[in-house]
Write a structure and sequence with these properties.
Blueprint lengths: L1 H8 L3 H27 L6 H16 L11 H5 L20 H6 L4 H12 L7 H4 L7 H7 L8 H21 L3 H4 L3 E2 L5 H4 L7 H14 L16 H7 L3 E2 L8 E2 L5 H5 L6 H14 L16 H7 L3 E2 L4
Parallel strand pairs: 1-2, 3-4
Length: 315
């Protein structure tokens, strides 16, 4: 055994020195990077220091908003109420503006709840109704109730009856010869003008204008069928009294538009917008509408709908 060990492992003095040097060299290679990292002084990044200061300033100014976990629901609703001393004046909660509510000392959260309630058709008919808004505390109601003034609802009912009567009269006028001569250009008319059309009230008129603005304009009056709630029967009543001027269409520069802007178009889905942008980035600008058919996800039906809205300049 001794002979076998001496034969395979016994080294002379020079070999032992070489092995020792190599071992020390390996150990130094292993510990030097860690040692250098500890001994090297950290450089101060001026940009980081500036950003850190901005963050700390922001947190200091908005400290109240970052203490939600330690607040009850009622205290959360009152965040920022003491930002200004309340100013008292008579008000109708049905017509309360954001500025007026702020002057009354209501918090942003409370103002938002009141605005949401009214915008969804809610009405305050008497003083006590104001207390039913769950973000309004008992303390708020007690200090504001002396200033709440809600007009007599009976007069409003009379006005509603008069307005309804005028609407019925207006609907009857649709059968007169004047309506037969009516001709409306869809890309320039406003929501008031659209109400001259048979079966189009304020809500429907607003939908048409909103959809038109998202499109960039109508290129075919049959696109009205894409408006939410529009059916063939209603469309048949008005199609002979509307037309489109395609010169008024606002086009999309497909070679410069970004993903977020392209996504706003009603005819373009998120997936389609993404592949259009990615293909352009990889293959360069589009030269003509048919270039879009090189994208596997897009087809001719899509191209027919979107082509009138595309521009292909490099600007």
């Amino acid at each position: 055994m001794r002979q076998w060990f001496d034969k395979h492992f016994l080294m002379n003095r020079k070999e032992l020195q070489g092995l020792s040097f190599f071992t020390i060299f390996i150990i130094l290679l292993w510990i030097l990077p860690n040692l250098y990292g500890r001994l090297k002084p950290l450089k101060q990044d001026p940009d980081f220091a500036l950003r850190e200061k901005e963050v700390l300033d922001f947190l200091a100014k908005n400290k109240a908003y970052f203490q939600v976990d330690n607040q009850s629901a009622s205290s959360l609703q009152n965040v920022g109420k003491d930002k200004l001393k309340p100013e008292y004046f008579t008000f109708d909660p049905n017509r309360l503006t954001v500025d007026e509510a702020d002057r009354l000392g209501l918090s942003d959260y409370q103002i938002r709840m009141i605005q949401n309630f009214v915008s969804k058709g809610g009405r305050f008919y008497k003083q006590e109704d104001f207390a039913k808004i769950y973000s309004i505390t008992t303390e708020d109601y007690q200090r504001l109730s002396p200033y709440i003034r809600i007009p007599d609802q009976s007069s409003k009912k009379d006005n509603y009856k008069k307005q309804t009567s005028r609407n019925f009269t207006r609907q009857a006028n649709f059968d007169e010869p004047l309506f037969k001569q009516l001709s409306i250009e869809l890309n320039t008319i406003d929501s008031i003008g659209l109400q001259e059309l048979k079966g189009i009230g304020p809500v429907f008129a607003s939908r048409i204008v909103r959809f038109r603005d998202l499109l960039g304009g109508f290129h075919d009056k049959a696109q009205l069928l894409n408006v939410y709630g529009m059916d063939k029967e209603r469309f048949s009543q008005i199609q002979d009294h509307v037309y489109v001027d395609t010169i008024k269409i606002k086009k999309i520069n497909i070679n410069t538009i970004n993903y977020q802007e392209l996504l706003k178009h009603p005819y373009i889905s998120p997936k389609q917008a993404n592949v259009i942008i990615q293909f352009r980035n990889q293959h360069g600008n589009y030269l003509q509408p048919s270039d879009l058919l090189k994208i596997e996800l897009l087809n001719e039906d899509f191209l027919r709908k979107i082509a009138p809205y595309l521009a292909f300049t490099d600007d």
